[in-house]
Amino acid sequence: MKTQIITLESHDDLISVRDRMSWAKTPRILLVWPKYEKVSLRQVDLKVLQRHAASLGAQLGLVSRIRRVRMDGEALHIPVFKSTGDAQRLAWPKPRRRRFIWRPPRKGLRERRERVMTGEEPWRSQPVTRVLAFLVGVLAVLTLVALFIPRAQITLEPLSKLQSLVLPVVANPSVESVFITGSIPAREKRVIVDGTQTVDVTGEGVVPQSKAKGIVEFRNLTQQAVTIPAGTAVRNAEGVRFVTTVDSEMEAGVGKILQLPVEAMEGGMAGNLDPETITVIEGRLGLSLSVTNPEATTGGRELPSVQASDADRERVKTLLMKNLEDEARQKFESELSPGDLVLEQNMTVSQILSEEYDPPAGAAGTSLKLDLRVEYANHYAAASDLAELASLALNASLPSGFRTAESDEVSIKPETNPIVEDDGTAKWNMRAERKIVRQIDPALVTKMIQGYGAWNVQSKLKETLPLAAAPDVQLTPSWWPWMPIVPFRISVVTE
What we know:
By secondary structure, the protein is an alpha+beta fold. It has ten helices and 27 strands. The strands form seven sheets. Strands 6, 7, 22, 23, 24 and 25 form a six-stranded mixed β-sheet that branches. Strands 16-12-13-15-10-17 form a six-stranded antiparallel β-sheet, with no helix packed on it.
């Protein structure tokens, strides 16, 4: 006969096994227990599965070596086998069918019920008993009202005082965090400012009018021909430079000579040189040729003019730097957060980003204009670092029995001006102050006034606790004469 074998797993329960059985289309369903896993099916579950199998028109069987499962199966008349092979070979017992036996209804049930029922006890019908029971119920209700209906709120203002402390502070650029010893970071901020300054020129100079010209003589030092392009630079020992104005080629052979015209690269009388003074060829041609000027170079002329001197440039830069430093200080202070402390009064020039003079050096002009863009830097102590240091020091010296106020605002004031040393470290003294209040245990207050008369609560708390003002007592309902008996109906608030 066909048999549906269902192997159980550890996560199977009554619902999952029923679902798996519902798919069976065979007259026999065999549930197989695993050897080393525990399946949570009780005897009542097996009974439900047996009825479910019967509703499907199948007979339920079990395969297990577990003693409890075998006993449960035998108690329910479910065939139990040691293996699936035994279940296939051995005959299954026929399922027991319940026979319906009709029995007539019993007679005299009403009389039996009346004989069993007993009458009410005599003491329960007494008026005194009923009144006492009613009074006990009313008293119980009043007791519950007295316990849970009244509510009280006590507002206390503890004694307070000012905690003050003078701290030595050291701000160091190499420090990255705040230490209770007084060391804090010296933070740096940089600002960029630019401006323009114009001054009248007081210096005198000359303006080049024309460039000197002349002839130079090249001599070949090799056996090959050498090309001399226009623009070949030659100069004297002092660095006055000339360039050739035409292209030419030197003939091959040692000692060959070629004369070419030259012109000074800069105008003025500096180009008027004596004969035999131009002796240097710039570039690689100097390895193959030598040069000299057989005649003097002439034609360089200058005109006197008003020009900016070095003193004028220094003067305009000094004036502009002073204005820019004032502007940088204002910009620096405007970017600081409230409470930040500037460590150095003078701003430090970090770098000059641009510096342009008009007219440039050597040019004529009656006025000198300077456009300057400068980056300034300065160190400061952050208000957050100072507040953290003050809190650490004040918490370390907090008197016993006190706590910080709810606002916990720390007032910070410098006692001395910062002194900056050569290594950039700044030192000064700082005063830190805050408000502290006496500690009051709400549980102790609750225990003290629990069940106490409301008319004496204020005086009792005033005499016992360190308060700055009389406590505020609010009872709900207001006409209730006593404080609540249960602690959770009393709330204590400290300001």
